[in-house]
Write a structure and sequence with these properties.
105 residues
Length: 105
C-alpha cells in the first residue's frame, strides 16, 4: 500500500499533498474573510457619516430618507465592499499559491 502512495502523481511531481492544499485553501478563505470584514467596516463608517448627516441637514433627504432607507444604503455599501474585497483577496492568494507550487516543481 505504501508503494502505491509513493508512486501517486501528486508525490512524484512534487505537488503539495491533499492535506496541504486543503490547509492552503482554508488559509486563503480566512484571509479573504478578514480582509472583507475590514473593508466592510471601513465602507460602512464612510457611508454612515454622510448618509446620516445629509438626512439631518438636507430638506430633500430629511423628507425622503427614513431610517430604513438609511440603513439600507449603509448595509448595501458595506456588503458590496465585503464581497468585492474578499473575492479579490481569495483570488490573489490562490494565484500566488498557484505560482508558488509551479516554481517548486
Amino acid at each position: 500500500m505504501a508503494k502505491n502512495v509513493a508512486q501517486s502523481p501528486l508525490e512524484r511531481n512534487g505537488l503539495p499533498s491533499l492535506d496541504q492544499r486543503l490547509a492552503m485553501a482554508k488559509r486563503c478563505s480566512h484571509e479573504g474573510v478578514m480582509a472583507g470584514v475590514k473593508a466592510a467596516m471601513v465602507a460602512g463608517i464612510a457611508t454612515a457619516v454622510p448618509t446620516i448627516a445629509s438626512a439631518k441637514m438636507l430638506p430633500w433627504a430629511r423628507s425622503n430618507l427614513n431610517p430604513t432607507a438609511q440603513a439600507l444604503i449603509i448595509s448595501t455599501v458595506a456588503g458590496a465592499a465585503y464581497f468585492i474585497v474578499a473575492d479579490k483577496t481569495v483570488l490573489a492568494s490562490a494565484r500566488k499559491n498557484s505560482f508558488k507550487s509551479n516554481m517548486e516543481t
